[in-house]
Write a structure and sequence with these properties.
Blueprint: H1 4-7, H2 10-25, H3 30-37, H4 40-48, H5 64-70, H6 74-82, H7 97-104, H8 107-115, H9 130-137, H10 140-148, H11 163-169, H12 173-181, H13 196-199, H14 205-213, H15 228-235, H16 240-245, H17 260-267, H18 272-281, H19 296-302, H20 307-315, H21 349-358, H22 373-380, H23 383-389
Organism: Cordyceps fumosorosea (strain ARSEF 2679)
Pfam families: Ank, Ank_2
Keywords: ANK repeat, Repeat
Length: 396
């Protein structure tokens, strides 16, 4: 016969384990035990006997109200609030009961706490307000309640992320609209310098559209000096046309001098060929050089699974003989950049070499330090490259 734990769902077992873990921390805290068990009679007895209603226990310094709210026990929480519990008491890491209500997604508990005077802008150790917590979980009604209570929609957490950064990153569109209507800065930057728009580039096209429609700057740069277009070609290709329509600069460069086409050449694994073709058609410079003198063709050559992107660049007129500041040709870069330990042993490697040689690449071009592709391949013991060069007149 199955035990209760064996027949329960994983979520039920986890909740049960958390409950037991909490119980073990409250052995010598009868008020907190009563709150955990939801025992109204026992709570009344303890309070009448003079128990400190705001006493803190465990390493986290929890009050009884924290426990009641954490376990979504509205009746017990109401009893404690009416008995004078501090509704804004922080734990050792700054978590208030309102933070707990936000994490639980409880509108009724949040209402109870706010009506009792809870601070809607209290910050935990990570500088998160309850609104940051709500933005992470996506409860629109709770977000609305907090904003109505005076929650600061522009507050930044320890990373500088505002609630709008978080809501946009999770594509909680109604919540993002609420924040924008409440005065959130659509171009707010976090501590890395990333504006909200960049946070929506993890395949969140609807968020990007909403932000652009509300004045997000498509030319704003973020960490690494890249624009939203640099981010989009890597992780949100569907939004590229919208960014271009909004005025994104297709020839903008990041701190290392890379254009969006460089990034697409290196990272466009899904629909990469079409991405390259789209950018070229929109005016991207196929001959653009980054700070190391590398063109998009060099980036594609060094990337995994990129033979189709190589073909697209070559068909657009990329110079197969162009070399970097170190004299590296695109063909040489099929082994990966020599300044790293990275070796491009992908299944597409031989195909890339064939594509470049068929396009006229010189197999014996030497770098500024005198090395040929064959010499480098032998040094790295890359048999795929050595086999691909066999019979093509390659020398060390």
């Amino acid at each position: 016969m199955e035990s209760a734990d064996e027949s329960a769902s994983p979520h039920q077992n986890m909740a049960h384990e958390n409950y037991r873990a909490m119980e073990s921390q409250l052995v010598n805290a009868p008020l907190h035990q009563a709150a955990l068990h939801g025992s109204a009679q026992r709570l009344h007895e303890l309070i009448d006997d003079g128990a400190d209603i705001n006493a803190r226990v465990s390493a986290r310094e929890l009050t009884a109200l924290h426990i009641a709210v954490q376990w979504d026990d509205e009746e017990t929480a109401k009893l404690l609030v009416e008995a004078g519990a501090n509704v804004s008491a922080p734990t050792f890491d700054g978590v208030t009961p309102l933070h707990n209500a936000a994490a639980a997604g409880s509108v009724s508990l949040a209402t109870l706490l706010l009506e009792a005077g809870a601070n809607p802008n209290a910050r935990n150790i990570d500088h998160e307000t309850p609104l940051h917590v709500v933005a992470l979980f996506g409860n629109d009604r709770l977000a609305e309640l907090l904003v109505e209570a005076g929650a600061d929609v522009t507050a930044g957490d320890c990373y500088g992320n505002t609630p709008l950064h978080i809501a946009a990153a999770h594509e909680f569109l109604d919540m993002a609209r609420l924040f924008l209507e409440g005065g959130a800065d659509v171009n707010a930057r976090n501590n890395n310098g990333d504006p909200v728009l960049h946070h929506a580039m993890a395949d969140r096209p609807a968020s990007v559209t909403l932000l652009l429609d509300n004045g997000a700057d498509p030319l704003a740069t973020g960490e690494g000096g890249g624009t939203a277009l640099h981010r989009a070609v890597q992780s949100c290709p569907a939004i590229v046309p919208r960014l271009l329509d909004a005025g994104a600069d297709i020839r903008s460069t990041s701190t290392d001098g890379a254009t969006p086409l460089h990034v697409a050449a290196a990272w466009g694994r899904t629909g990469g060929k079409q991405q390259v073709e789209r950018l070229v058609a929109a005016g991207a410079d196929i001959h653009a050089l980054d700070n190391s003198g590398a063109t998009p063709l060099h980036y594609a050559a060094a990337a995994w699974g990129s033979s189709e992107r190589l073909r697209a660049l070559l068909e657009a007129g990329a110079n197969v003989s162009a070399t970097t500041n170190d004299g590296e040709s695109a063909l040489y870069c099929t082994l990966g950049h020599p300044s790293t330990a990275f070796q491009c042993h992908d299944k597409d490697l031989e195909e890339k070499i064939t594509v470049l040689i068929d396009a006229g690449a010189d197999v014996n071009t030497r770098t500024t330090y005198g090395q040929t592709l064959l010499g480098r391949a032998q040094e790295m013991d890359n048999r795929i490259v050595m086999q691909a060069l066999d019979g093509r007149g390659a020398i060390q």
